[in-house]
């Protein structure tokens, strides 16, 4: 019997959590290797870049037998196709492709806000825009259990985590604004899936941090937190290795 699949990423949710969800959902026995957010992790990643034989070294990466994949969407698609979670028809697969790309555009837009040097000054006004920013998704998901209706797809886990980027930031908006009811119900539906429920209630799951220390939101709950420019030199200066 070959070695079990290995998923490698930083010890945050970031771009990797949808992959962790789908693997848990499928009950795949895999190694969830998390690199610490300190100089030790940065050194480990520098070494793995050279030793793992990746065509395009990046985090996350996934090793499944003789297949070595980087890029989070490629990994999610591979697992979805392998386990028949990528639609049963050409139309369904195309719909998933469309939603996936829409979600990535949405993530990029959120990323800009969480990286804004004025984030702490604008965050309350930004919260007020969330219902309109998610309005198209809310309309699409109205009356649906999952993206394809009654059946789960891999992209559902990407949708869940994308909504979490808003929901963790402003939970009160989802609880109080009826215009986001379908998305809030979708979140709860994903969380109620037995395998996902077991995972998020286990010590294997980390709800925080969402991201590394390079955003104004998602790493530290300090309201005055200022992100650390991402470089090996900065990591070592802030997180010196023990001698």
Can you offer a commentary on this structure?
The protein has helices spanning 17-25, 39-51, 72-82, 90-114, 119-133, 135-141, 154-167, 171-176, 181-192, 194-200, 232-238, and strands spanning 6-10, 31-35, 61-64, 67-70. The protein has 243 residues and is an alpha+beta fold. The chain has a domain at 90-193: Glutathione S-transferase Yfyf (Class Pi), Chain A, domain 2. It has a 4-stranded mixed sheet with strand order 2-1-3-4. A hairpin with a 2-residue loop joins strand 3 (61-64) and strand 4. The chain is globular and about 50 Å long. The mean pLDDT is 92. Keywords: Transferase.
Task: Tell me the layout of helices and strands.
Layout lengths: L5 E5 L6 H9 L5 E5 L3 H13 L9 E4 L2 E4 L1 H11 L7 H25 L4 H15 L1 H7 L12 H14 L3 H6 L4 H12 L1 H7 L31 H7 L5
Parallel strand pairs: 1-2
Antiparallel strand pairs: 1-3, 3-4
GO molecular function, one term: glutathione transferase activity
Pfam families: GST_C_3 (PF14497), GST_N (PF02798)
Function: Conjugation of reduced glutathione to a wide number of exogenous and endogenous hydrophobic electrophiles.
